Amino acid sequence: RPKLSGPELLCQLKKNVEVSTLTADLQPFSALAWATMLLPPQQLTSDLGPYKTCAVVSSAGSLRNSGLGKEIDSHDAVLRFNAAPTNGFEKDVGSKTTIRLINSQVMASDDHRFLSSSLYSSGVLVAWDPAPFSSNLSQWYNHTDYPIFSQYQRYRRLHPQQPFYILHPHVEWQLWQRIQDNMAEPIQKNPPSSGLLGTILMMSLCKVVHVYEFLPSRRKTELCHYYQHFYDAACTLGAYHPLLYEKNLVKRMNQGANRDIFVHGRVTLPGFSAMNC
Ligand code: NCC
Fold first, then answer.
1. Which of 179, 224, 228, 235 to mutate to test the pocket of ligand 1 (most atoms within 8 A of CB)?
2. Listed residue (257, 101, 100) closest to 191, CA to CA
3. Where do the structural domains in the chain lie, given as residue ranges?
4. Mean pLDDT for the chain?
5. Does domain 6-274 have CATH number 3.30.1360.120?
6. How far is it, in rounded angstroms, from Cα 239 to Cα 189?
7. Average pLDDT over residues 236-243
8. How many angstroms does the Cα of residue 57 sit away from the middle of ligand 1?
9. Measured in angstroms, how far is the CA atom of residue 181 from the centroid of ligand 1?
10. Whether residue 3 has pLDDT greater than 90
11. 3-class state of residue 207 by DSSP
12. Fewer CB within 10 Å, N side or C side of the chain?
């Protein structure tokens, strides 16, 4: 199998990964009273953007002492992940949060206080849950990894004004397939990390996407998150998620200089609307 060039990979992503979110017209949600009441009437991509420039801020420990805060905040939209805070870390990660992408584990675990913490109350929320491979929505609905739907309902009732979407699980597996098809060896059958999911999400909303510390800079560290004193190299290299393969793919698609990765931890990707395929 020939190795695809960066532009070819980008076009493949644009063609094969459809970023969509759950709406109440889909089975089995159309028959569920809570869903017709609480799911957004429209897709995320029809409600948000298009934006000119966007920043995706990984949660990596190597963001510490980066001084990237001002640069990150200068983008039209900023995406952050899970429980990553800005309070107290503004100098390094900025303070703007347009979208927060959260996994279902964050929604369900008691430590994160998802329903009550103010961390989650700014910006647009997007949640996802590892769905079984090639399952339909009803099979997933009955076998989610974590209780994403009950927590979603609780959160929406407590914060009815905040936009909150759920990622369609086909995004996970369409993206997984792009990774697998471009690697020489079989990869683990687990969905891509929030980092890659968020990057694709922003590529469908923005003209240019800068991703920070997904490909580690010279500040690379075993510190897992910039906001916690916890050390584990698996946070950067992956265990459950095919993170190393995700990073390999992003490295090949990067349109910025290698020096920007090394010095700033910054990758530059074109949005889908800016590609000529
Ligand atoms: O750690 P996590 O991700 O919240 O980080 C968000 C994304 O940033 C990228 N990252 C993070 C740390 C690091 N050193 N290098 C990185 O490149 C990754 O792309 C990552 O996806 C997740 O993907 O949702 C994940 O969530 C955590 C955890 O559930 C949440 O932080 C809530 O506590 C997972 N950790 C565990 O399950 C223990 C992690 O595997 C993936």
1. 235
2. 101
3. 6-274
4. 97
5. no
6. 12
7. 95
8. 12
9. 24
10. no
11. strand
12. N
